[in-house]
Automatic annotation (TrEMBL):
Domain AB hydrolase-1, chain residue ranges per copy: 33-290
Protein name as it appears in the record: Alpha/beta fold hydrolase
Coiled-coil segments: none
Hydrolase as UniProt keyword: yes
Length: 304
């Protein structure tokens, strides 16, 4: 009840400032805090909340999930969709919940947010966890397009579609959208052999309350590319600086996540170190659902 009241107060207090940041907490506030940062831009934390947040809390963590300003359930027509804006909101969460340090868990695009925040505010972060997180955007785009060109080497229509995307401005929302749409159409985000457990998790989510609030702001990527100069970046140099500053970095990825090449994965593993990296079998982009037990077990092993 106390956690609910705190969350409600935070949402209400931001409404009074012309913002409406959705935030929800799970578990005992005395436990180690994990702040989950969802993908996007235009994403939300509903899948993580509807499947994993409470189960992670049950393992002895205080989990904070929220939707970034202007995305998902955090409606704000004045949102700028810049990294600096996200940092301000994260610092507001730290202040409202009286957090000195927290584990930052970044998924997909949220990994870029988490990395840049940790670099700017290392004193606030006890550990950085990259879960299927982006870290070298152009290499990801190149890998998607090159993989598909090989797959469709004898299909002129598909090659034409790929070529159209490939020739777009690489620092544009249209290019990003085109690459990920092609990846989605070709199953890059799906685990190859869904298990009974993963099927149940996805089915329960789609039948539950969180799926009903799976709100997507289609304008978010456009505004992000309009307002944020760092829109196609490689954060590996930043990750090295974070590690040198003494903040532990962990990486957990699915072996069947089609948006990352083996070279990318190996380069990240070289930064985190072998003991701080996990590569999950039969697992794609949404690893906290695809292989939830292994995902939670690895986080508990690392962070507890």
């Amino acid at each position: 009840m106390k956690s609910f009241l705190v969350s409600f107060f935070f949402v209400f207090s931001l409404f009074s400032k012309g913002q409406s940041l959705y935030i929800k907490t799970y578990g005992n506030e005395k436990n180690k805090t994990i702040i989950f940062i969802h993908g996007g831009p235009s994403g939300n934390a509903t899948l993580f909340e509807g499947t994993t947040a409470q189960k992670l809390a049950d393992q002895g963590f205080y989990v904070i999930a929220y939707d970034r300003r202007g995305e998902g359930r955090s409606t704000d027509s004045n949102a700028k969709f810049t990294y600096e804006e996200v940092f301000q909101d994260l610092n507001s969460i730290y202040a409202k919940y009286h957090l000195k340090k927290a584990v930052i868990l970044g998924h997909s695009f949220g990994g870029l947010v988490a990395t840049l925040y940790t670099h700017k505010y290392p004193q606030n972060v006890s550990a950085l966890v990259l879960a299927g997180a982006l870290f070298s955007q152009q290499e990801t785009y190149d890998h998607i397009l090159n993989t598909l060109k090989k797959k469709y080497s004898n299909d002129s229509e598909q090659l034409k579609k790929i070529s159209i995307v490939e020739n777009l401005n690489k620092n544009s929302a249209e290019y990003r959208k085109g690459c990920y749409e092609l990846a989605g159409e070709n199953g890059f985000f799906k685990m190859p052999k869904p298990t009974k457990a993963s099927k149940k998790l996805y089915a329960n989510y789609e039948a539950g309350e969180f799926y009903k609030t799976n709100i997507r702001n289609k304008n978010a990527p456009l505004l992000f590319y309009q307002n944020e100069k760092q829109n196609n970046i490689d954060t590996r140099p930043v990750l090295k600086k974070i590690k040198s500053a003494g903040v532990p970095i962990y990486g957990i990825y699915g072996k069947d996540d089609g948006i990352f090449s083996s070279d990318q994965i190996n380069s990240l593993k070289a930064i985190t170190g072998e003991k701080h990296f996990a590569f999950l079998d039969n697992c794609s982009h949404y690893l906290f659902v695809d292989q939830q037990v292994a995902f939670i077990s690895k986080l508990k092993y690392w962070l507890k």
